Amino acid sequence: MRYTLFVKPGSKKGPLVELSEAGEITVYVRERPVDGAANKAVIELLAKHFGVAKRAVEIETGHTGRHKRVRIG
User: Fold this and answer.
1) How far, in Å, are 22, 26, 42, 43, 52 from residue 2 at the CA level?
2) Gap between the Cα atoms of 53 and 12, Å rounded
3) CA dist 35 → 6, 38, 52, 67 (Å)
4) Sequence-ordered alpha helix ranges (H) in 1-73
5) Cα torsion angle, 49, 67, 15, 55, sign
6) Which residues have CB under 8 Å from 27's CB, separation 6+?
7) pLDDT digits (tens, 9 = 90+) for 35-56
8) What is the topology classification, in CATH, of domain 2-72?
9) CA 58, CA 61: separation in Å to the nearest integer?
10) DSSP 8-state class, residue 33
11) φ/ψ (deg, to 5) at 68
């Protein structure tokens, strides 16, 4: 499955996956976007949230931005 999400790195609210009523996914992670730390945290958090292995989560687009498209499965 593919999901579009918005990432908030450096958040004190995280780690948290939040789904809005409109179906939008917001991911809060504590890690800053330095040397891929936030992306790694997003992958780990989504794997835990969806109950899959980390290798099953892939960031397809948005490696350097807050808007990302991920493939899970």
Assistant:
1) 16, 14, 15, 13, 14
2) 25
3) 19, 8, 24, 17
4) 37-50
5) positive
6) 5, 6, 7, 8, 14, 16, 17, 18, 42, 45, 46
7) 999 999 999 999 999 999 999 9
8) Conserved Hypothetical Protein Mth637; Chain: A; (3.30.1200)
9) 9
10) S
11) -130, 150
Can you give the residue ranges of every domain in the chain? 2-72
pTM given for the model: 0.93
Give the residue carrying structure tokens 């918005």. Answer: 6
Mean pLDDT for the stretch of residues 1-22: 94
Measuring CA to CA, which residue among 67, 46, 64, 42 is closest to residue 1?
Answer: 46
Considering the chain, what percentage of its residues have pLDDT values greater than 90? 90
3-state secondary structure of 38: helix
27 φ, ψ to 5°? -115, 125
